[in-house]
Design a protein that fits this description.
The complex is a heterodimer of chains A (about 260) and B (about 160). Helices cover about 45% and strands about 20% of the residues of chain A. Chain A has about 260 residues and is an alpha+beta fold. Chain A has three domains: about 5-50, no CATH class; about 65-120, no CATH class; about 125-255, Phosphorylase Kinase, domain 1, CATH 3.30.200.100. A seven-stranded antiparallel β-sheet of chain A has the order 1-2-3-4-7-6-5, sandwiched between helices. Chain A is globular, with a radius of gyration of 25 Å. Chain A starts with 8 loop residues before the first helix and ends with a helix. Residues about 75-90 of chain A have low confidence and may be disordered. Chain B has helices at about 5-15, 20-35, 45-60, 70-75, 85-90, 95-105, 105-115, 120-130, 135-150. Chain B contains nine helices and no strands. The chains are: A alpha+beta (about 260), B mainly alpha (about 160).
């Protein structure tokens, strides 16, 4: 029999669109509904096939060049670009000057908005890449241990800071191990946690000026949540629901 | 140019061709620049992609591309029962996936591309496609189901298009 939720809430859950309470509620339903469980697995397979097929079509170089040429022109309104043979020449030049200034002003604001957004996107891409890399066979952990007292000293001498290593097995996030990673040229301690059948990577770096304080986002079906604490920047990334990542963040922030 | 890839990727999948996608992306950027006054603040990517999407559908209409247009009412309908066989398939090759995605009706295609390739949230997809969030969710459920059905069809129809 087809479960009604499998056509609606299951997708919202799968896409991380439910809040913590909604997600927990659906997970309780999942335990007793083989239909939803099977469909969720099917959605996961389809997504990993889509990710694996790399269907994303990046803009070709020819388009970049075309945009470079056409956009500065476009910022000038058409009535200015299409001069009429009239005596109002001086007015026309004034209009051109004014619209060029306007175009520059608008352009700057536009670019700032877009740049801020794309910087965050670029960092997200680095984090998701690192997460995907870690999921390849043999790449997940350098030190395999569920004992925080084994994982923590392992980082000694390998990096110039002592990341806070804690096991949250009691709260449903067992520590699986740790590894070293490099994110945009910065050394990061990667802590690996399990969450049901999902893997969560928590990247810890020393906070640097310019680091976004808090954030969350999604890329290619992976979600990330970032926060700062005691001079460290944490980024948790996984294909699990936002609610899980938020819960893990709260666990880290709790004394 | 920020979001150039996002704009081109969406156009490429809605239009199903590289050359058309280049032209329409360029047109969309021109429009975005001209109408920048209308953009206050907020999600620049969603704003741009909405323009790209509109340009794509205008292009399809003007060039009389026969598209199976799904009506709004139908988009919001719950999907039919899915064949259990299509749930069991584990691996698909890239070419097969590409063809299956291109064979989806345009409104399903865009929603899969925005969600799975671009990683947009429901809220963003709703803004880009100017549909209610509930419709986005049910359309996504149906699009995924149809994609799986195409992937389990024994004989692929037609030759593969270029990416």
């Amino acid at each position: 029999m087809t479960c009604e939720l499998s056509q609606t809430r299951l997708h919202a859950y799968f896409d991380g669109e439910l809040d913590a309470m909604g997600a927990a509620e659906f997970e309780r339903h999942l335990e007793s509904c083989p239909d939803c469980e099977g469909r969720l697995a099917a959605e996961e397979k389809l997504r990993s096939a889509l990710v694996g097929a790399q269907l994303y079509a990046r803009a070709p170089e020819t388009l970049r060049k075309k945009l470079q040429i056409s956009l500065p022109m476009a910022a000038v309104p058409p009535y200015v670009r299409d001069p009429k043979p009239s005596a109002e020449k001086s007015w026309r030049w004034l209009a051109i000057a004014a619209s060029v200034i306007l175009a520059v002003l608008l352009g700057t604001h536009y670019m700032e908005e877009l740049n801020r957004y794309s910087q965050q996107q670029a960092m997200a891409a680095v984090i998701v890449d690192a997460h995907l890399r870690s999921l390849q066979p043999g790449h997940l952990e350098d030190v395999i241990s569920t004992d925080q007292h084994t994982v923590k000293p392992w980082f000694d001498g390998k990096i110039d800071f002592a990341p806070p290593v804690r096991d949250f097995a009691g709260d449903g996030f067992p520590l699986l191990g740790g590894r070293l990673d490099v994110l945009e040229g910065r050394t990061a301690a990667a802590l690996v946690y399990g969450r049901r059948k999902h893997i969560v990577n928590v990247f810890v770096t020393k906070t640097q000026p310019g680091d976004a304080s808090d954030g969350a986002g999604e890329l290619q079906g992976y979600r990330w949540v970032a926060w700062q604490q005691n001079g460290f920047t944490f980024t948790a990334v996984s294909d699990t629901a936002y609610a899980d990542l938020d819960q893990l963040k709260e666990l880290f922030l709790a004394p | 140019m920020p979001h150039r890839d996002a704009a081109y990727n969406l156009a490429r999948w809605i239009l199903r061709g590289r050359a058309q996608a280049e032209d329409v992306t360029q047109e969309a950027f021109l429009r975005a620049y001209r109408s920048f006054g209308a953009f206050q603040s907020g999600n620049a990517r969603a704003w741009l992609l909405q323009i790209v999407r509109n340009c794509c559908f205008t292009w399809l209409q003007q060039n009389h591309v026969a598209e199976e247009m799904t009506e709004f009412d139908e988009l919001a309908m719950p999907p039919k029962t899915e064949n259990p066989e299509s749930l069991a398939i584990a691996t698909y090759d890239r070419e097969r996936l590409q063809r299956a995605l291109e064979d989806l009706p345009a409104h399903f295609r865009e929603i899969i591309v925005l969600r799975e390739l671009e990683g947009c949230s429901y809220k963003e997809i709703a803004a880009i496609t100017t549909r209610p969030i509930g419709t986005v969710m049910s359309a996504l459920a149906r699009a995924r189901q149809q994609l799986r059905t195409f992937l389990t069809e024994p004989v692929p129809k037609g030759a593969s298009r270029d990416v």
